[in-house]
Write a structure and sequence with these properties.
This protein has one domain (about 35-205). About 80% of the residues lie in helices and about 0% in strands. It is built from seven helices and no strands. This is HdeD family acid-resistance protein. It comes from Corticimicrobacter populi.
């Protein structure tokens, strides 16, 4: 048996083709359509600015959207429950489907109450996530680099506590504010990406 190492390269299975060629070609193709990224980014930026002004309206829109998703999810749960009605999980799927449908109908029928419930749920999730990150940091605090996890957990925990402390008065604006903030960041990101693709496309020509 010949144990000598082969002199042929193994990291490039296709001779004459760079492993980064697909990535480069994809970026070049995207660079030709940089205007779409900028246009979509500007649209999201405008929507985010509108949301920052009309926070209550954006809160209600987000609640109605979540309510519609929960209603659709509940119907799908019931359909799945009846498909497996001979199995032991039939009751769990049925109960969860009815719960989703009830929550979705509540959000659609009374968006204000739905906003209050979702805001309280958001605060609880942030508190739990922040506490979990702090617990992970405490158990690994002797290792290097884990201080960032502690900082992240502390910020998340404080955000959850602030939301819970201001509930239910803040439920009229917090969801709309977060939606507007997300649209603003997405818009800025897409505009910057489009500009970077435009510069790369101009250089490649």
């Amino acid at each position: 048996m010949n144990d000598r190492p082969s002199s042929e390269p193994h990291d490039n299975p296709v001779p004459g083709l760079s492993p980064t060629a697909p990535l480069v070609s994809n970026l070049t193709a995207l660079g030709a359509h940089w205007g779409w990224f900028v246009g979509l980014g500007m649209l999201l930026l405008v929507l985010g600015l509108i949301g920052a002004v009309y926070v209550l309206a954006f809160t209600l829109v987000s609640v109605l959207f979540v309510g519609a998703l929960m209603l659709a999810g509940g119907i799908l749960h019931l359909i799945q429950a009846w498909r497996i009605k001979g199995w032991s999980g039939f009751l769990i799927w049925t109960v969860s489907g009815l719960f989703y449908i009830a929550a979705g109908l509540l959000a659609l029928y009374n968006p204000i109450a739905g906003a209050a419930a979702l805001t309280l749920l958001l605060g609880a999730v942030l508190i739990a996530a922040g506490a979990l990150r702090l617990w992970l940091w405490f158990n690994n605090r002797s290792q290097a680099g884990w201080k960032w996890l502690a900082l992240s957990g502390l910020i998340t925990l404080l955000a959850g506590l602030l939301i819970a402390a201001g509930w239910p008065a803040n439920s009229l604006w917090i969801l709309g504010f977060l939606l507007a903030l997300d649209l603003l960041f997405q818009g800025i990101t897409l505009i910057m990406l489009g500009q970077a693709l435009r510069r790369g496309h101009t250089t490649a020509r």
